[in-house]
Amino acid sequence: MPIQYYIYLSLALFSIGIIGVLTRRNAIIVFMCIELMLNAVNLLLVAFSKMHHGTALATDAATTAGIDGQLFVFFIMVVAAAEVSVGLAIIVMMYRNIHSVDINFLNRLKN
Amino acid sequence: MSITQIMFFFLSALAVFSAIMVLVSRNPVHSVLWLIAVFFAISGHYILLNAQFLAIVNLIVYAGAIMVLFLFVIMLMNLNKESEPNKHIWMKMAGAISGGCFLMVMGSLVRQAADFQGKEALVGTGDIGLIKNLGRALFNNYVVPFEISSVLFLSAMVGAVVIGKKE
């Protein structure tokens, strides 16, 4: 499969995530769009790791080149899980204080 | 057209369509369900690329744990109704235009880049995505980041509890 196809797919998902962050006002949906962008990057990392592995296989049959990309995806998932737990706690606290998850209420630091 | 190509285009269409539905649905619960569909499509891509470990982890961690957490929060706040006030139409237009510009610029960049011409992602073969090889690399070369990530989890857990508890 040509690598460009994967890049285009990841770009489309990432752009949809950007548009969601810019246009929606619900804090939870904004957060979900950030997850979408993270997943687009993950898909691209895996595709590139397979591309690198394919080129390295031509010279050495037992190579593990490209395995770093997949481990990076693993660590991105680890960090994303931690980020989600803290972010959702912040959203819950925000809802408890202002009884809304509308991010336009947060455009000033005072009050 | 081979079966992998058909699967690739089907999964890509499913992923993009579900991602758009995440944006346009008014109900946050529907958005969560569409996002789970996106994660399933991305897991299908991982299986197609023979990254089996990541496919399973993506399903368990993202579709299983994180999205359930989102659903819990949405239902805890009783947000499962169309309560979001409409943003101004010009703001939506501006967001869509800037996202489209990003897509266009990056797409034309990728189309012209000489580095990507004729490169192929290995589909269906290659064994670097198997648990055996990934585990060997993880516990040989990446054991320090792996341990640090446990510290990160501990601090995230403490932070979530401290932020979330009632004072």
UniProtKB/TrEMBL annotation, chain A:
It is found in: Cell membrane; Membrane. It catalyses: a quinone + NADH + 5 H(+)(in) = a quinol + NAD(+) + 4 H(+)(out). Its main location: membrane. GO terms for cellular component: NADH dehydrogenase complex; plasma membrane. Its EC number is 7.1.1.-. The chain crosses the membrane at residues 6-22, 29-51, 71-95. Keywords: Cell membrane, Membrane, NAD, Quinone, Translocase, Transmembrane, Transmembrane helix, Transport. The keyword Translocase applies. GO terms for biological process: ATP synthesis coupled electron transport. It is an enzyme of class 7 (translocase). Coiled coil: none annotated. It comes from the Bacteria. The keyword Transcription regulation does not apply. GO terms for molecular function: NADH dehydrogenase (quinone) (non-electrogenic) activity; quinone binding. It is a multi-pass membrane protein. NDH-1 is composed of 14 different subunits. Subunits NuoA, H, J, K, L, M, N constitute the membrane sector of the complex. NDH-1 shuttles electrons from NADH, via FMN and iron-sulfur (Fe-S) centers, to quinones in the respiratory chain. The immediate electron acceptor for the enzyme in this species is believed to be a menaquinone. Couples the redox reaction to proton translocation (for every two electrons transferred, four hydrogen ions are translocated across the cytoplasmic membrane), and thus conserves the redox energy in a proton gradient. Belongs to the complex I subunit 4L family. This is NADH-quinone oxidoreductase subunit K. The gene is nuoK.
